[in-house]
Each structure stands twice: as C-alpha cells, then as structure tokens.
Amino acid sequence: MKGSTVIIYFSNKGSLIGKSLSSFSENADSRIAFLLYRSTLAKIKRSGLPVIFSDESNQSGNSLGWKLANSFQQAYHEGFENVIAVGDDTPGLQTSHLLEAARSLESGQMVLGPSEDGGLYLLGLRKAHFNAVEVASILDHGRNQTAAFENFIQDYKFLAPKILSLEFDIDNAWSVHTWRAKTRFSSFCDIILSKEIGALLHRPFLPHCVGFISSFDFSLKAKVSRGPPSAVLFLY
User: How many whole angstroms separate alpha carbon 219 and alpha carbon 170?
Assistant: First the structure.
C-alpha cells in the first residue's frame, strides 16, 4: 500500500489562512489555524503513508480546483497510482479515514469524504479515475461535490465510490464554536485540540508566540519531495 498510495496535504489561502476563526484578533486566528493544521498533520503521520505538501509555494493554477487537480497530476507524475487529498479545515478527519481510503483505492474505488456544507474533506482518486478538467470543474463549481463525483463515476462506468462519514469543516468563528459544541469527541487528540482552542477563545489577547506560529509558516520544515515514491517524505 505504501508504495503506490500518497497523501496530498493541501492548504492555501482558500482554507484556513487569513480567515477569522476567533472573532478577536489576527493573532488568535493564526493560533487556531496552526492548531488545526498541526492536528491534521499528526493524523497523517500516524497513517504511515507518504505525504506531499501542497501550499502556496508550489501550487499552480488559477483556481482552487485547478490547484488541487495539478497537485494530483504531479503526484501521478512522480509514480503514484493512488492519491488521497485532504485539507487542514476538518478536525473530524481521523487516521482511520486515511487508512480506509487507502484500502478502498487499492481495491479500485474512488473515495469521497463529504462535508456538511456539500463539499469534500477527502478526495481519493486512482490514476485511472483522474481527469484534470472534470476534477477542477467539480471542485470549482459543484455545490454537491459528492453527487457530482458519483455522476462522474457512473459516466465512466467505474466501481461505485467509497463514501466516508459525514464531517464538519471549519470556515469561520461560528463554525469553530459549532464544531466544539456539537461534536462528541472519541479521539483523545481531538479532546486536547478542542481544549487548546477553547483556551485561546477565552484568552485571545496573549502576546504573539514565536515567529513561525504568528506568521503561520505552513511548511513546518516540510517540503515537497520529487522523484520516485521511495523519495517522498515520510513523517516519522
């Protein structure tokens, strides 16, 4: 599985960067965004799968859909057959989602992780499923992306997609509060995440933390590795 499947960790200004997540200050916003990013990164690490980091420094395309489609294309170019893309704005994403997606891709299925707002928090595509124009179009224009990808699968007569659990994504301060209020946390890490964010919401005007948090350096010392699958970064 490790040799043919890779995770794209996708983040840019359309995800958490620059969004008002606290209703207090840019400092509190960046801290919450950092906590969410770090939490997802830890779950990716536990999967044991290789990861390619896709951010503003290496993305190409004029829209969110094309940036992600081009990231998929690059992963296939590097030798992977199966690609799982996730963002940094869905705290309900678990390592189990990633492993389930990897198994489903190996069995020939597309994988869709639907968000409550009609978008996707996870998209898993085999190389045989991939059509850059279709993927970009659905991501940029599809209101119900799960249904749009299901129709795409039917048109091309692929196996029915694997649909993961419905999860809640973070867009603004209201969604942060809603996520903390409505979620029954089963993961210890998510309990800690909720408590850390809660502490920030009650103490939003603390001095700026060290530079890489206040400036929100999404790279976290992680760069995209080029070359064959064996050369792509593992997070150990």
Answer: 20
Q: What is the DSSP string of 69-120?
A: HHHHHHHHHTT-SEEEEE-SS-TT--HHHHHHHHHHHHTT--EEEEBTTSSE
Length of the chain: 236
Bridge partner residues of 82 (DSSP): 5, 126
DSSP H/E element including 8: strand 5-10
* Inter-CA distances, 197 with 31, 71, 88, 89, 217, Å: 8, 30, 15, 14, 19
On whether the pTM is more than 0.85, the answer is no
Cβ atoms within 10 Å, residue 85: 27
The whole-angstrom separation of Cα 123 and Cα 112 is 5
Per residue in 64-85, pLDDT tens?
Answer: 899 999 999 999 999 999 999 9
219 pLDDT above the threshold of 50: no
pLDDT score of 232: 42
Closest CA to 110 of 89, 74, 138: 138
Q: Which of 180, 212, 232, 156 is nearest to 30 (CA)?
A: 212
Among 147, 44, 7, 164, residue whose Cα is nearest residue 100: 164
Residue 3 has a pLDDT of: 64
At residue 116's C-alpha, the angle toward residues 111 and 121, to 5°, is 40
CA distance linking residue 74 with residue 179, whole number of Å: 33
Residue 207 has pLDDT above 90, yes or no: no
pLDDT band at 189 (very low <50, low <70, confident <90, very high): confident
